[in-house]
Amino acid sequence: AQSVSQHNHHVILSEAASLELGCNYSYGGTVNLFWYVQYPGQHLQLLLKYFSGDPLVKGIKGFEAEFIKSKFSFNLRKPSVQWSDTAEYFCAVSPFYNQGGKLIFGQGTELSVKP
Amino acid sequence: ETGVTQTPRHLVMGMTNKKSLKCEQHLGHNAMYWYKQSAKKPLELMFVYSLEERVENNSVPSRFSPECPNSSHLFLHLHTLQPEDSALYLCASSQDYGGNTEAFFGQGTRLTVV
After folding, report:
1. 3-state DSSP of B4-71
2. Burial status of residue B40 (CB atoms within 10 A of its CB: 0-12, 13-18, 19 or more)
3. B10 CA: distance to closest CA in chain A (Å)
4. B17 exposed, middle or buried (CB, 10 Å; 0-12, 13-18, 19+)?
């Protein structure tokens, strides 16, 4: 069965620290990859996405992610976090053919940034 | 504002009640989805509609009944729910159900079954 694994359930960082959240998926075919963020009390928002091309994807608010096909990974990074980055982060995978809008989510990583 | 609006935002219902969740998208999308977000679990896809036809039903119990009267509206009818059905129910839409597309989510309905 297709699945998405996020290795960190809760990450606590101080402001200005660097962030890397791991995401691995299991699916043998072509996939689209996403990171969504959910700020406290708000809806899920798209942070960045990968469809094809350059495997290093830049998103909003200084986030980026790298798709490494051989490792089935799509890790999220930010060089310097801010208190406002406190949120829950979800990695999601969508099989490309005929199911592009169907998302398989990881369990989420709660990020707490201390001022 | 995401372009996907869900009502109500909060709902408390008894196990014998019947209620409905509503979702409306203002994005001109062709596909709509219901997801369930439970504590400590990944978001689970429940139903998918593409061009108003149900294309996926992920082994969801019959006490959840979706309805898509047109491409802009999606309902989730609830009856005889169980306490374990308490969760955040998210609606999403995407341009199409295939290819390079991304999903836009509503703010969700927080459902509590008592």
Report:
1. EEEECCEEEECCCCEEEEEEEECCCCCEEEEEEECCCCCCEEEEEEECCEEEEECCCCCCEEEEEEEC
2. exposed
3. 12
4. middle
Residues above pLDDT 70, as percent of chain A: 94
A99, pLDDT greater than 70? no
Question: Which residue in the set A43, A49, A102 is minimally distant from B2, CB to CB?
Answer: A43
A100 interface with B at CB cutoff 8 Å: yes
**Under 8 Å between Cβ of B25 and B32:** yes
The two three-digit tokens of residue B80, written as one number: 């005889």
- Cβ separation of B56 and A102 shorter than 8 Å? yes
Whether B100 and A34 lie within 8 Å, measured CB to CB: no
Residue B88, chain A, CB below 8 Å: the answer is no
- Considering only the beta carbons, identify the residue of A42, A103, A107 that sits closest to B41: A107
Residues of chain B falling short of pLDDT 50? none
| A2 phi-psi bin (left φ>0, alpha ψ -120 to 50, beta other) | beta
The per-residue pLDDT for range A36-85, each reduced to its tens digit, is 999 988 889 999 999 889 999 999 999 999 999 999 999 999 999 999 99
Higher pLDDT, A102 or B18: B18
Residue A76 pairs with which residues in a beta bridge? Answer: A21, A65
Is residue A96 less than 8 Å (CB to CB) from chain B? yes
